[in-house]
Amino acid sequence: MTATIDTRPQGANPFDPDAGLAGIGTPPAARTGSTVPTGAVPTPSTPPARRSAPRSLPNGGVGASRTGARRGVITVTGSVGPRYAEILSTDALQFLAMLHDRFDAARDELIAQRQLRRQDIADGSDPDFRASTRPVRDDPHWRVAGSRRAPGLEDRRVEITGPTDPKMTINALNSGARCWLADAEDASSPTWPNVVEGQLALHDAIRGSLSFTNEAGKEYTLRSADIVDLPTIVFRPRGWHLDEAHLRYTDANGITSSALGSLVDFGLYFFHNAAELIARGRGPYFYLPKLEGYKEARLWNEVFEVAQDALGIPRGTIRATVLIETLPAAFEMEEILYELREHCAGLNAGRWDYLFSVIKCFRTRGDSYVLPDRAQVTMTAPFMRAYTELLVATCHKRGAHAIGGMSAFIPDRRNPEVTRQAFQQVAADKKREAGDGFDGTWVAHPDLIPVAEAEFDAVLGDAPNQVSRQRPDVVVGQHELLDVASARRAGATVTSAGLRSNVSVAVRYIDAWLRGTGAAALDNLMEDAATAEISRSQVWQWIASGTVTHDDQLPVTRERVETILLDVVASLPSEPGSRIEDAAAIFREVALQDDFPAFLTSPAYQAHLVDSPADQV
After folding, report:
1. Which of 186, 243, 439, 528 is catalytic?
2. What is the pLDDT of residues 516-536, one digit of tens each?
3. What share of the chain is helix, strand, coil (3-state, %, to 5)?
4. Which stretches make up the Malate synthase N-terminal domain (predicted)?
């Protein structure tokens, strides 16, 4: 199949670009007596405003312009380690300041709209496909860029995921996967060293010079200095909702706030590596996390255009794969593809965060929206299957790649039975994905690459993908996507073991995250921030819904969970650097209080991670 690119000028959308939240909730302008100033979120649980009062800048502020015009300034407030100046150079900080000048306020407004939409759903407005954007869905002619003129993205049958510290970077690039999701988001704890040293590791890897020696003296090196011999790097910056506390942005009016984690991660990677990647036969490729609708995709597209123009790189060079990992985004897949079309490679089924989003949206909607134990919500549950089938059909209709999700099972080289079960579970998961039409998938461990690859090889053969395989048989509507009760109708239940597992896994993961590790092997599963989000959200929902555990017929209450929490904390070993008590305090805050923070990582970052021992250079 030959993809065609829509030639209409960017921004000339065939639908109202300022349409309201049709089908998802009441547009903000229609709320009687309600106003939403930029950056404000009018809910009782509104966190402190991101912006602070104007203050004088310490040395180190770098403006966005070398002209006499007063523009924004980025200031480094974090400590500086060896080679940090290579990443945090004057020119790089000027580039970040320019991006913040253009997009800081727009991001704040989108975050406000997110919370209004989320509240509408909690109040009873079911998400649906937008009437205002129907012309995009009904137009059969437009296509996205896909992998056209994007070397290294044609064949993505197996991608390995992981954080960007030097050891993991080398292991991922030596793994034999087709692509590497270089993760600065859910699989990375955003300590200041992780942020900057992850950028350094990527910088060196792209240039073939990365090496690492651990404390025991073991040396890790790249198997090739030529990047085209290694997995294609697809970098995932932090989502729109996350801030970077170690860089401060002061706008033209003298108002100072934390920089945006998304623009920091994207901007530093793009500034330092885009031209180098192109020269070496690859390109600047990205995964975009946590989008909740087409307007957020539009903002990323504008960022791409401005960034490419600023560095003299042709528009369309960037390629982005969007994770469909929120419930609102599942109803706007085609619109998201359209907004990013000249920069879009595909969509990914971010299954774990998708479950978190489902719980978050419906947490107050009663028993029919209660999800059973996390381990019992498989990808064959009807509402999950509807989501993945729609994703494949949507992608292939528009010439985009559909990338499957990660099976969390991991092998244990010291335990053959655990390894056998992991291989069996992963093989079944990838066989389903390949058969459904996915063009590639994720794994979390190098030993799983041959297992996943065998299932895709059986379907793809020598073809690089199956984008040409259309799925006219897929008919998915609002009911199918929202049929959350289908999991329990199929026999899945809420159990006392599932409740304890949620508490235990959440606390242990948060402990690891506070110590600087964002991807943690727990109970033979590779867990990231989405795991803790699902776990704490389920506990909150079960308490709010008066859920009774199936095996013992006891209600899930705060008192019951507190008892389990105390037992879990007491059972965990005390070791140097332990953050178990802090992890338990965070769990209480995000799972046992009346308010429900949109993300646990936001309050945990500000109150417990910044300036902690793990945050020191």
Report:
1. 528
2. 999 999 999 999 999 999 999
3. 45, 15, 45
4. 75-133
